[in-house]
Design a protein that fits this description.
375 residues; three-stranded parallel beta sheet; elongated
Length: 375
Amino acid sequence: MLLADFGAEIFKLESPGSGDMGRTWGPPFAGEYASFFLGLNRGKRGISINLKNPAGLALCLRLIERMDVLIENFRPGAMQRLGLDYASLHAKYPRLVYCSISGYGQEGPSRDEAAMDLIVECSSGFLSITGTESGEQVRSGYAVADVNAGMHSAIGILLALRARDQTGLGQYVDVAMQDSMISAMSSNYMSYLGSNKVPTPMGASFGTVVPYTVFSAQDRAFSIAVGSEKLWVAFCEAIAHPELTHHPEFATNPLRVTNRRALEKVLAAVFRQRPMAVWVARLRAAGIPCSPVLNFDEVASSPQTKLREMFPILDHPTAGPQRITGTPIKLSETPGAPGTAAPLLGEHTAIVLKELLGLDDQAIEELEQTAVIPS
């Protein structure tokens, strides 16, 4: 999706008949497709080829010859059984950048374990630090393991393409969801590696900075992050409790970390005395990072996200106008933007085979009649 937003021509190959399982991940649905699918697959051209048919496999190989990058996320070994593994393709197409996304990588004792987002949230250690202080484990509110693997894959592909500019050769980009999650939690793991203390869930709090959490005002919740001693002094003044600045238990961040529960109890009593808007206004005026706990409706309708074009509209051929998420990377000279709407299953198969492989109408018709591609 990110690469497509910046002009990469993306061909999404799906099996005839069922296609990507994400097409059915709803409700909500818009027309026959899940909103989930429509948002994540914008800017892609949809092709459908039966890879179990030798003629379909041959078509796929001819298409790969025209590609810069191949991305696959089958279980390890599946592409090798099709003859589409990296070693086989690199011998034929040495400039090809080949990216495999899997749960645990292409080798090791866990390589064959089935993986989805929740599973890797657990196997990476993420769920052990995410939840309430009473010990209840809580899944991330979004598919953090999936998204981390996708972002690391995009970075790996760009690195490989840059290296190809220098060497003329493609290479293998091996991205494991578990690896991506461990890397994303580098600060958490470094605290563990430095202290040898196994972390536990802390709710909204943070292990090395205090106060850094969510509080409830008279009417609703808001967050604060006091990341330096200068901010701590300004924070105490803003909440009209300057005596906390030099309190023997709270005067420095290490002391505040040690005495976190006592300080948070004091602050919770203070913040319950006034509405959230009062506190946020005071804290922002003092330069303290803070925010109301906004819901999705508030975020999607805010002037800031409108200015940043984070919820544009794409017109889908069957589902109609769809509001989607925008691209988060803003480039000054070559800006990205959501392209075409998510494809229908196999929507562009015939036209892609004509454009890229030069097949004529008769050849397309023969492929349809032999069930190599959908009719």
